[in-house]
Amino acid sequence: MWNGHTTMKTTLRMSGAALGLAISFTAWQVSQGHGIYAQTWLAESLLRTAWVRTQASGHQVKPWPWAETWPLARLTIPRLEVEQIILSRADQTLSAFALAHLDSSVLPGEIGNSVLGVHSETYFGFLKALRPGDVLILESLRSGRWRYQVSAIYIVDKTSTFLLEPSLNRRLTLVSCYPCTVQDDRRYVVVAEEIERV
Questions:
Q1: Which of 1, 123, 158, 192 could join 176 via S-S bond, C-beta 3.0 to 4.6 A?
Q2: Per CATH, which fold does 68-198 belong to?
């Protein structure tokens, strides 16, 4: 018991040091004129740190102090070498650096249809590169690790809701704007079905 407590304290101390290093690096990058890249790097670092701390502590850890969200799961796409943190409360926040879970759907990894909102920058980053047959690995805080496979990709009117309906199987439904312009009235939807527990 004592060793576990010591390990957790060490992990949290290292996370604090990583946060301090990340902030220092960002300040340096901004002073060098690389503000956008630094913000992206800092946000992704803070999201990963929040995920690790949430796993270690079992408590909801916010990625930054003013955030109204916390990590629920991590999604990895081996073919694209992409890792995305899934945050809670998509209806209140949609980060350009993470996927956001829609509160009205089941939690990622549970039986049913888990709907994830995707910011337009994330869409351009990886969503449009997904193809039917691609494997997604979901690591959930509550449900363990699951392997999903992209079964279909749709472009639908933004008023269509049939892809958001409940499912009897584990499903991930990733939704983004399309074509991600000021006047977009369609949605880009990637559906992935669970194939096995990892």
A1: 123
A2: Sortase; Chain: A; (2.40.260)
Domain extents in the chain: 1-62, 68-198
User: SS3 sequence, the chain?
Assistant: CHHHHHHHHHHHHHHHHHHHHHHHHHHHHHHCCCHHHHHHHHHHHHHHHHHHHHHHHCCCCCCCCCCCCCEEEEEEEHHHCEEEEEECCCCCCCCCCCEEECCCCCCCCCCEEEEEEECHHHHHHCHHHCCCCCEEEEEECCCEEEEEEEEEEEEEECCCCHHHCCCCCEEEEEEEEECCCCCCCEEEEEEEEEEEEC
| pTM of the complete model | 0.78
Percent share of the chain, pLDDT over 70: 77
Amino acid residing at 151: S
83-87, 93-97, 175-179, range with the lowest pLDDT: 93-97
